[in-house]
Every structure is written in structure tokens, then in C-alpha cells.
Amino acid sequence: MPQHQRATLAVLSAKxxxxxxxxxxxxxxxxxxxxxxxxxxxMNSYYSNLIEGHKTLPRDIDRALRHxxxxxxxxxxxxxxxxxxxxTEMAMRERLSKEPxxxxxxxxxxxxLHKEFYSRLPESEWITTSLSGQTYPLNxxxxxxxxxxxxxxxxxxxxxxxxxxxxxxTFYKGKQILATEQLIAAAAAHHRLAWIxxxxxxxxxxxxxxxxxxMIRSEVDCEGLWTLSRGLARNRKxxxxxxxxxxxxxQSDIDGRSNLSDSSLAEFCxxxxxxxxxxIEFMLELLDPKALNNRVEQYVRFxxxxxxxxxxxxxxxxLHALLHEGELGRxxxxxxxxxxxxxxxxxIQICFAQNLIHSPTPKGPLRLxxxxxxxxxxxxxxxxxxxxx
Length: 389
Fold this sequence. Notes:
Elements: H1 6-26, H2 30-51, H3 58-65, H4 73-98, H5 107-118, E1 127-129, E2 135-137, H6 161-172, H7 182-196, H8 203-217, H9 228-234, H10 236-245, H11 262-286, H12 289-303, H13 309-325, E3 327-328, H14 330-337, H15 341-353, E4 357-358, E5 366-368, H16 375-378
Antiparallel strand pairs: 1-2, 3-5, 4-5
Helix pairs in contact: 1-11, 2-4, 2-9, 3-4, 4-5, 4-8, 5-8, 6-7, 7-8, 7-11, 9-10, 9-11, 10-11, 12-13, 14-15
């Protein structure tokens, strides 16, 4: 845990806890939160891919989730990576929910994350190549059995990985981590896990997923309504610079007690927590009820202008009702607008055709659809077209 900048880190932690509570309350309906969380998982995979140097368009991720893959081998590979990330996050959330005593800092959990991700990839991806061009096998969920260099950093010898990971677990899960310092611990653990570099490949993805698990345990994840990866991808160069600086050895007698620089670790933790706060505040702004209602209305009025004004007005009213209620029975549409049964069915079919709503079953209740068609209008700047370096 960094000793420098304790006051700054404490203030950031308090702000994050307060803002995460505001974000949870921004969407009162659990069904609407769940639908938006699906979109955020897509966003999480999109930005995680960008951090790793792969770009997959949101529409292509949507297609891949429906098992519709591109014929281009490079695009198909990126789609597979995205789907693997989404499914791994879903599995992680389910497991954390069902196992309240599960320790996310344990080697067992980290290896499970790695296995969950790579087991969803074809075996052709189960290799890693060193900077010198040497190829090594990669077994999902297994610690690396060889030494590597990561830029200017040389991670621990592979034979020492179990000991390093046990120290990682006992420290960051230990009693010395106060409840008020869990977010600082999550930030420091993000760097330390990246520094240990326990796997042959996939360390970045596992480290970000682990940080997400720590956010869930700290109750600031807001049921998946924001993603760390968006903030890290938007500041990718700074992210890697801060990680590298935190790898530095101690610069003086007042720079901590371990062999690594305490002040540099503190700088990374400030960057990390500032990124979290920025992403929560960004989502809070997007989910302002009045502004969101206005954006939904603007989409209907200007993007599907071929419909009559009366039909568009009814669609807007229906979508606003779904934002508030979460779901509506099909029969209630008829009573809301005072329509005949045939006219009500026609309105519902128009909404389905425009990809504005969906239903869990063929005759089930109606729910809002947050998909690639509407996301730029409903949630501008959610997906930013960042360059791949």
C-alpha cells in the first residue's frame, strides 16, 4: 500500500463511494439497469480489445453475440476475443454472486479467470511469442513455466510465481487493509499483479477483470453500469507510462521500504482512482433521466421520420414508459393509448421492426433494447473511436 499521497487517495476513495451510490440510484428500475449492463459488457470488451491493440466495432460485437461472424479472419478473431471477454465477465459476476466467501485475490481465482477466457478461444490462440520471436505453449489457467521480459520490466522467475501470488493474496486480502482503503488496495493490486505477470499471455485482460472483481467486492461496481477499461483505453499511453513508472526501484530512503518506489506506486494509484471516478461521473451524466428521455425522443423523431407524427408520438410515450417501468405486458399497450387490439399489435410490431424493444419470449413482456442501432443516439460518447497503437 502506498504511503505517499494518502490524503489525496482518501479523498478520491470517498468521492468514488459517494458517486457510485448516485449512479445506482440514477436508474431505479432493476430491469433497465440489467439491460444497460449488457451494453456496458459489450463496451468493456470493446475497450479491453483496444487496450490490447485490437479494434472491433460495437455492431460487429453484436453480430458475434448472435453467432454471426465476419468472413475476414482478422475481424473474426477480434469478434471471438470480444465474445470470450463478455462471457468471462458474465461467468465471473455469476460466481462472485453465488460465492460470497470467494477470495478474488487468490491464485486459484486468477487462474480460473485465465482459463475462462482462453478456453473460449480456439487452440490456435494458446501460444505466446517473446520479443525475440521464441514461441511458448500457453495452457489456459496455468502459470507460465518460463521467464519473460515485458518491455523494460523483467517479471519474477517462473519458479517463484506461487510464492509471489501467495504474498499478493495474503497482503491485499489481509486484515491490514481497512474497509476505507479497499479501493486504494485495488489500485495497488492492479499494478502488483501486472508486475508479477503470472501467465504467458492474457495478463492485461486478467488484471483488468480482477480489478473489476475487486470493484464488485467493494460495492462500487454499480451492477455493471460503468467500466474501468473505457477510462484506461482513452488514456492508454498514460496508463502504460504509470504502470512502468511504478515498476521503478526505490529512489531514496524516503521512497518507501520495499525495493519498488512508493511514490511512483502512489502516482499510479491516484491515476487509477481518478480514472474510476471519471468513468462513474461520465455514466452519471449519460443517465440523467431528463436528458436520457430527450435523447430517446430525438432518436424516434429524427431517425425514423418515415412514420407518421402520431405513431412516433406513441412510440416515444411507450419507450419513456419502459424506461420508467422496466417492462410492460403487451396488453397494457392497448390500454395506455386507448387503441384497438389490432392497432396495438401494429404499434408493437413497428417497435420490434425498428429494433427499439425486445421480449424475453415470443409472447412475453416488452423491454427496451439497448443495441448497436440506437447506442450512439441514446448514449453518445459511450463508444469512442480511438486509434489502435
